[in-house]
Write a structure and sequence with these properties.
The complex is a heterodimer. Chain A is of the alpha/beta class. Chain A is about 30% helix and about 25% strand. Chain A has a five-stranded mixed β-sheet with strand order 1-2-5-4-3. In chain A, strands 6-7 form a two-stranded parallel ribbon. Chain B is of the alpha+beta class. Chain B has helices at about 1-5, 55-60, 65-70, 80-95, 100-125, 130-150, 170-195, 200-205, 215-220, 225-230, 235-240, 260-285, 335-345, 345-350, 355-365, 370; strands at about 15-20, 30-35, 40-45, 160, 165, 305-310, 315-325, 330-335. In chain B, strands 1-2-3 form a three-stranded antiparallel β-sheet. In chain B, a hairpin with a 2-residue loop joins strand 6 and strand 7 (about 315-325). Chain B starts with a helix and ends with a helix. The chains are: A alpha/beta, B alpha+beta. The interface between A and B is large, with 45 and 46 residues.
């Protein structure tokens, strides 16, 4: 837990206390969830990068009122997974983390092609899994068969 | 014109298409290699030929309907993917699992892990030019497939787990069959070692080849045997034990240098550890129901989300499910280990020989359909 506590200590210094919420990792899989604004993503991510974490997963969520990026950082310790949630309004770009985590360059390409969230500063935003001429974003809730298209507060409210 | 011919040969970078001739070729991975003579300057994996939109399908199917999809992502460890998905939904919906079902799942999952490693062992050695070990490995793997076929009715895409248990109970024939298989497999390990591990040609083709330093592995999110070969004992079964893995004694084999030989040794040692787990699980296998009868027929988890990580044959895999309270997940993301394991190659392959590239590619053990999803 040493690395996690070190990182949490630094996060507390830069983030307001109410943006950090602690959870039971045996129920949710993450021990902590941090809500971060688009302008501070890089600052937060560099704390994880320096703290010896890796970017385990990066994915998006599409809601009527906004899009959301969910980063999962983890390190080789029990219960160290931290979720970082970033609201990203429709049509806005998120900052790239590909210089902090090498894996982010593919993960961001994937989020870009599936959710249509561009990453500012990314060196090579070609589609990764979709055909190279794909001009659609299949995991947005306005594409193809969709079961429900909700507002964020309907799930997390 | 003449100037062009006088240029030194080393300046000529040419691109080699290392990959399938046809999209139906198994495990379609295409690499664009920029070569300077025999040396690789740049490697760019081109993936996505097997993209089927599993995540999209997950969002407009009910939880139960998505179960068959899970075993088709990594078709070599379908049982492990079934298992992880069942765990995720059970956690999200708060479904209890009877003890017997937990043990059955662990036994089947570890059998599947061995079969996946055996297939890797066979094909890897075949990639390096040894055909005989492939036949040995497939002979043993076939027996695992028979065992899993007996309980699940399928050889590869099992869909055996249910929310709250497993589809059907195991009988004494399966238990006895598994015990005799373990005995047989253990007697085969010495053959494997004398055929391959001690083979000098094999050693020269793997030792010091494709070294992944621990820091590079962290940067790319490499997990599983590839990470453990770098000397980091990170195994989800130990670090965040799910199911009943905390009740078994087993070790996490690690390597030292992070080269192809270490990755090979780690996987072979892992098979022996899986045998240990299965043996203990068979000894402890409790009587009782194999399925929670009270589990809801139509699963409607409360609003919320879950991130369920588990150790598949290739590393840390996770389901990230967001529920909006309806019968279908609002978001169904799958974190696959091969994604990072393949991505790291763009760095590892730089400056290596083309002949070594084959060895490195094989030693990483990627299953491309799981990346493509």
């Amino acid at each position: 837990m040493a690395r996690l506590n070190e990182v949490l200590e630094k996060l507390r210094q830069i983030l307001p206390a109410d943006t950090l919420s602690f959870r039971d990792p045996s129920r949710t899989g993450t021990s902590c969830c941090a809500r971060v604004g688009l302008d501070r993503v890089r600052e937060v991510a560099s704390i994880f990068a320096r703290g010896g974490f890796f970017l385990e997963s990066l994915t998006g969520l599409d809601f009527q009122d906004s899009k959301e990026l969910v980063y999962h950082f983890n390190t080789y310790e029990p219960g160290a997974r931290v979720a970082v949630r970033v609201l990203c309004p429709h049509g806005e770009a998120a900052p790239t983390l590909s210089d902090l985590f090498r894996s982010a360059s593919w993960q961001e390409r994937e989020v870009w092609e599936f959710f249509g969230i561009p990453f500012a500063g990314h060196p090579d935003l070609r589609p990764l899994l979709l055909p190279e001429d794909a001009d659609f974003h299949p995991l947005t809730k306005t594409f193809g068969v969709v079961n429900a298209y909700r507002k964020r507060e309907e799930i997390y409210g | 014109m003449a100037e062009q011919f006088r240029k030194p040969v080393v300046d000529q970078i040419y691109t080699l298409n290392l990959g399938p001739q046809h999209p139906s070729t198994h495990g379609v991975l295409r690499m664009l290699l920029d070569l300077d003579g025999e040396y690789i300057v740049k490697a760019d994996p081109t993936i996505g030929y097997g993209h089927r939109g599993h995540e999209k399908m997950g969002e407009n199917r009910t939880y139960k309907q998505f179960m068959p999809n899970t075993s088709r992502m990594d078709y070599l460890s379908g049982m492990l993917y079934n298992h992880g998905f069942a765990l995720a939904v059970e956690k999200l919906a708060g479904i209890e699992v009877p003890a017997r079902a937990r043990y059955i799942r662990v036994i089947c999952a570890e059998l599947n892990r061995i079969s996946s490693h055996l297939l890797w062992f066979g094909t890897y050695v075949m990639d390096l030019g040894g055909f005989t070990p492939f036949l040995y490995a497939f002979d043993d793997r076939e027996r695992i497939l028979d065992l899993l076929d007996r309980v699940s009715g399928s050889r590869l895409t099992y869909s055996y787990c249910r929310f709250g248990g497993v589809a059907r109970d195991v009988d004494s024939g399966f238990v006895e069959g598994t015990r005799s298989f373990l005995q047989r497999l253990r007697s085969r390990f010495p053959d494997y070692h004398s055929l391959v591990t001690e083979n000098v040609i094999f050693i020269y083709r793997t030792r010091g080849v494709g070294v992944v330093p621990a820091e590079l592995a962290r940067q790319y999110g490499v997990t599983g045997p590839n990470l453990r070969a770098c000397g980091i004992a990170y195994d989800v079964r130990k670090v965040e034990p799910y199911e009943v893995y905390d009740r078994f004694e087993f070790e996490v084999p690690v390597g030292v240098n992070g080269d192809a030989l270490d990755r090979y040794n780690v996987r072979l040692a892992e098979m022996e550890q899986s045998c240990r787990i299965i043996e203990q699980a068979l000894d402890q296998l409790p009587p009782g129901p194999y399925l929670n009868e009270k589990a809801p027929f139509r699963v409607r988890p409360p609003k919320g989300e879950v991130y369920q990580a588990f150790e598949s044959a290739r590393g840390l895999t996770a389901y990230y499910l967001v529920s909006d309270g309806s019968a279908c997940p609002y978001r169904c993301h799958i974190r696959v280990p091969s994604f990072g394991n393949l991505h790291v190659l763009e760095e590892v392959l730089k400056g290596t020989l083309v002949a070594d590239a084959i060895s490195i590619l094989g030693s990483i053990d990627v299953v491309v359909p799981e990346i493509d999803r």
